[in-house]
Design goal:
Helix content is 76%, strand content 0%. The protein is an all-alpha fold. The chain has one domain (5-175). Helix 3 crosses helix 6 (138-156), helix 4 packs antiparallel against helix 5 and helix 7 runs antiparallel to helix 8. The longest helix is centred in the middle third of the chain and has 40 residues, at 64-103. The chain is elongated and about 75 Å long. The chain starts with a helix and ends with a helix.
């Protein structure tokens, strides 16, 4: 099932936040990948390999406990990176779907939607902002907004499951987001 009108309104309002979360997740994945490169030497030593980094000593024994900690950390690190990739893929998909719908808005609809939802302007302020493009009434602006939201519903094809997942992620409820994803 795809988004309904009120859900489309809410997710459009949160579009800038979704982009911010995507950027943050990408940075987290990049950091996790860099940390993993550093941890490879320790993991390799635990498994009896030779480190690529010559500053790590090879003499001595590593206990089973240390080896287990390193192996478990390595496994958990891989799981975390997989989860980050999944989150990035899911949120990227939602953003792309919203972007597709947004590119089909008229210039007037785009200006109304951005002013009303992203800049949180009142209808009077929206009309003032739009006067440079076209002189319109509040009633007409609301009709154009309704058309744009309906276009968003019709073209984006964001599912209710994707919507619920994104809302849980934005609210910081990773447990629900993991269950939805």
């Amino acid at each position: 099932m795809y988004l309904r009108y009120h859900e489309a309104e809410k997710i459009f309002r949160l579009y800038p936040s979704l982009n911010g979360v995507l950027e943050s997740l990408e940075i987290s994945l990049e950091s996790a990948n860099k940390m993993d490169e550093l941890d490879e030497d320790i993991y390799g030593l635990c498994l009896g390999g030779r480190p690529e980094n010559p500053t790590i000593p090879t003499a001595g024994n590593i206990s089973d406990k240390t080896g287990n900690i390193a192996a478990n950390y390595h496994k958990r690190s891989n799981i975390n990176r997989i989860e980050l990739r999944k989150d990035i893929l899911n949120i990227s998909s939602i953003i792309q779907k919203l972007r597709i719908a947004r590119t089909n808005f008229t210039k007037l609809q785009k200006k109304i939607m951005e002013a009303y939802y992203w800049e949180e302007m009142t209808w009077i302020e929206v009309i003032g902002e739009i006067e440079s493009i076209k002189r319109i009434s509040i009633r007409y602006a609301k009709e154009e907004r309704k058309k744009a939201i309906n276009k968003l519903v019709r073209l984006s094809k964001v599912t209710v499951e994707e919507y619920n997942w994104a809302m849980a992620l934005l609210e910081g409820n990773e447990t629900i987001a993991e269950q939805e994803g």
